[in-house]
Design a protein that fits this description.
By secondary structure, the protein is mostly beta strands. It has one domain: Immunoglobulin-like (Sandwich), CATH 2.60.40.1190. The protein is about 0% helix and about 45% strand. The protein has one helix and 13 strands. Strands 1, 2, 3, 4, 5, 6, 7, 8, 9, 10, 11, 12 and 13 form a 13-stranded antiparallel beta sheet that branches. A hairpin with a 3-residue loop joins strand 9 and strand 10 (about 120-125). The protein starts with a strand and ends with a strand.
């Protein structure tokens, strides 16, 4: 497993927090995603496990670990949202911030998270959408929205290509999977 260090955007980059993530392509079109965050528990909102995790919209309004992934030289891309609560979503977009819709081929994600005094982890197994399952390599950006205890958010990514936090910017899809 090869860990990638994510960095916060803008003024939040001075935070002493550490966030790293890894992505690995497994057999049969499955991605293994792992995130590890080192931050005192009292500084971060880490949603508790939901009794019945399900597909939900707007997970990015709280702590949400994300993956943006695409086929090279194609305008469409996919956004995967994972909440420590176990809730999730996978969206398909036809182009830059266009045509957002839930990816119908993915009906379930295997997801679990743990939280300790200063370490939080999330592990997920995600089926690739059929349009990407046979494509190699894929382009990706590992990202996260972290909700602070004061209810502000910071935006973390492997690559921040612009003058504002924008996970959808294809220039940020710098990781080959």
């Amino acid at each position: 497993m090869s860990w990638q260090q994510l960095t916060a955007f803008g003024d939040e980059s001075a935070l002493p927090w550490q966030l790293r993530a890894s992505i690995k392509r497994l057999d049969q079109g499955i991605l293994a995603l792992d995130y590890e965050l080192v931050v005192p528990a009292d500084q971060l909102i880490w949603p508790a496990a939901a009794a019945s995790p399900q597909r939900r919209d707007e997970l990015w309004q709280s702590t949400c670990l994300e993956l943006f992934i695409a086929q090279p030289n194609e305008p469409r891309y996919w956004e995967i949202n994972l909440s420590p609560s176990g809730d999730w979503n996978v969206y398909r977009l036809s182009g830059y911030r266009q045509g957002l819709q839930a990816e119908p081929s993915i009906q379930r994600i295997s997801l679990n998270s743990q939280s300790a005094a200063d370490r939080h982890q999330l592990h997920a197994r995600v089926e690739l959408p059929p349009a990407l399952s046979q494509v190699a390599p894929l382009e990706a950006n590992l990202c996260a929205v972290l909700e602070h205890a004061n209810s502000s958010n910071s935006y973390w990514a492997l690559c921040h290509p612009g003058s504002e936090a924008d996970f959808h910017a294809r220039a940020g899809f710098v990781l080959e999977v």
